[in-house]
């Protein structure tokens, strides 16, 4: 069996904020009959604070530490889950190692212009809000900084420009396609 469809291997959706990881993830998890986990939700549970509050009170480094713990916890959880990872999960080499070693990674890729329309003013996302550059410029910079990392860990790349239903369909097809892929 291909690693892509191995039922013991968590599926992790990665990509920049606004790519649709949570919305698409919920749908694909339901189709696959897997529990859905979201590392952002796990961070909020652990911190007992919202993500903007964690950034504000404890800083991004603390957020990243909680995010890494949440990823490890999610990957090890049973039954085998489908996980939506926060967009910055690939910034840590250790996280990338876990993704490569233990999971099937699906990169939801969409251009910054499309992401900008979806995230609006970015109010609930500390890396997009505040003074300075506008949301589109920030997304462009994040895209430029992270593309190589997303690419390096992705087993599958899915164009996430379309609506949630269409993208969920494409993810499910790509995962199922692993069966016929000679894996
Ligand atoms: C972040 C993405 C957010 C959240 C935090 C930081 C990032 O998650 O983890 O605001 O660094 O890209 P989503 O990608 O789910 O919006």
Task: Provide a descriptive summary of the structure in words.
With 183 residues, this protein is of the alpha/beta class. The protein contains seven helices and five strands. It has helices at 21-32, 39-47, 51-76, 93-102, 112-119, 135-153, 164-177; strands at 11-14, 36-38, 82-84, 104-109, 156-159. A five-stranded parallel sheet has the order 2-3-1-4-5, sandwiched between helices. Helix 2 (39-47) packs across helix 3 (51-76), helix 3 packs parallel to helix 4 and helix 5 (112-119) packs across helix 6 (135-153). The radius of gyration is 16 Å and the shape is globular. Shikimate-3-phosphate binds next to loops.
In short:
This protein is α/β, with parallel strands linked by helices and 183 residues long. It is built from 7 helices and 5 strands; from the N terminus they run E-H-E-H-H-E-H-E-H-H-E-H. A 5-stranded parallel sheet has the order 2-3-1-4-5, with helices on both faces.
Q: What is the CA-atom radius of gyration, in angstroms?
A: 16 Å
Cα distance spanning the termini: 6 Å
Structural class, please? alpha/beta
The number of strands is 5
Order of helices and strands: EHEHHEHEHHEH
Whole-number mean pLDDT: 93
Bound molecules: shikimate-3-phosphate
**What is the strand content?**
5-15%
Share of helical residues? 40-55%
Q: Tally the helices.
A: 7
Strand order in the sheet with the most strands: 2-3-1-4-5
Query: Any low-confidence stretches, pLDDT <50, length ≥5?
Result: 179-183
For this structure, the quaternary state is: single chain
Shape, per Cα inertia axes: globular
The main pleated sheet reads as:
5 strands, parallel
